[in-house]
Known about the structure:
This protein is an alpha+beta fold and 191 residues long. It has helices at 3-14, 76-88, 92-95, 142-147, 177-187, and strands at residues 27-37, 43-50, 62-63, 66-68, 96-101, 113-122, 134-141, 151-158, 161-170, 173-175.
Amino acid sequence: MSPADLERLASQLRARTPERIDDPEARRAAVAGIFRATEDGRVEVLLIRRAERPGDHWSGHMAFPGGRREPFDPDLLATATRETQEEVGLDLAGSGELLGPLDEILPRNRTGLVVSPFAFRLRGAQDLRPNHEVAEAIWTDVGPLIRGEVDDEYPLLWQGQNVRFPAYRVNGHLVWGMTYRVLRSMFELLP
């Protein structure tokens, strides 16, 4: 993926209306898929490894920065921006460019949560400052993800059956589930 691909992704996101899940009873959350161009012309995406916490459905998983909408958040874009600032110290309002929203997604673990993903481009260099919710924050090259060079599977006993979910192997970690699905949805928008 090149910086020109980010322009194409932004164009595709602006030209479409993302699918929304109409469920007034659902709790809402938002995540930020954050991209940056490198000096050598590659594109990287920010992934975090969530801290291990009892009762957290996604404890230790690879994810995007994000979290639940709070009553004081005016909208889900504000949630994604606030959560990114809190979790990794990136100021998307000041140093990010919104590329656009993606289709809302339901976690497969049936938590009653609807997640709204947003894609951003980071302008300029910023240091990451992970908080206590984040065990690790990494930038990873998007090219190998798109080309299938890091494809893998995540084995899981799910609903009484052994299932293998598609995944990416990134820095020794498996990116699967919602994060994998959101990444795939972005890549599918690229011609």
